Amino acid sequence: MNIIINNNCYESKKGDRLLDVARTNHSHIGYFCGGNAICQTCYVKVLEGAELLSPLSDSEKAMLSDRLINEGIRMACMTSIEKEGTIRLLSVVEAVKHMAEKDPLQLPAYAGKMGWEAMVKFTDTIRFQADRENTERKLNFWQLLSDVILAINDALQFTAKELTSFFLHKPEPATAPKPKLISAVSPESTTTASYSEESNGKSATTKLLNVA
């Protein structure tokens, strides 16, 4: 089945976590905690196929405000594919990137909104993290450390890829065309040189007369 993340189409199957599909295909998505439901950077907006995903769990609800849920936001580390079909997602970090490129003046308002929505769920989030020892999401320190290291490595690879792509495709600066020598005639003491140069799509001929 197909899953479209940030306008790129990838193969996926039932049971896959959204975060794992994104990481495998080096898609632009946040996961500083390595997918352990701590950092809250793997937000994705479900644009199509919400009914094909796992339902919101109590753990996910503890970290997402009602407003974000109504906007179609899910946590990619807590959401998996349950049914066949087409799923289309936009990661929040990719949305911020587009915003920075096209209309950076929107960034302060957007940051304020996301910060407020995190504050709304602050108490529930702290309670969820404190109770993890008694749930199926119990953290293993060494596994967490390994996941974080892998996440940092993935982030560095993605950054290097983006920088390489930027510099390789950087357009060359425009240069003015150089005049071309068409002919030169030197009868005895008189030298006539004729040059042709193009400017703004028009051809002009300039003759230089040198009398000894």
CATH superfamily of the largest domain: Beta-grasp domain
Largest sheet: 5 strands, mixed
Biggest sheet strand line-up: 2-1-5-3-4
Instruction: Give the SSE order as H and E letters.
Output: EEHEHHEEHHHHEEE
Helix content: 25-40%
Through-space gap between termini: 83 Å
Number of domains: 2
CATH topological fold name of the largest domain: Ubiquitin-like (UB roll)
What would the average pLDDT be, to the nearest integer? 79
Q: Give the class-level CATH name of the largest domain.
A: Alpha Beta
Secondary structure tally, helices = 7
Integer-rounded radius of gyration: 29 Å
What does this entry look like structurally?
The chain is of the alpha+beta class. It has two domains: 2-168, Beta-grasp domain (Ubiquitin-like (UB roll), Roll), CATH 3.10.20; 180-211. The N and C termini lie far apart (83 Å). 37% of the residues lie in helices and 23% in strands. It is globular and about 50 Å long. A hairpin with a 2-residue loop joins strand 1 and strand 2 (8-11). The longest helix is centred in the C-terminal third of the chain and has 28 residues, at 141-168.
SSE topology:
Elements: E1 2-5, E2 8-11, H1 18-24, E3 43-48, H2 58-61, H3 66-70, E4 73-75, E5 87-91, H4 92-102, H5 107-120, H6 122-130, H7 141-168, E6 180-185, E7 190-199, E8 202-211
Parallel strand pairs: 1-5
Antiparallel strand pairs: 1-2, 3-4, 3-5, 6-7, 7-8
Main attributes?
212 residues; alpha+beta; Ubiquitin-like (UB roll); 2 domains; 37% helix
What's a concise summary of this model?
This protein has 212 residues and is of the alpha+beta class.
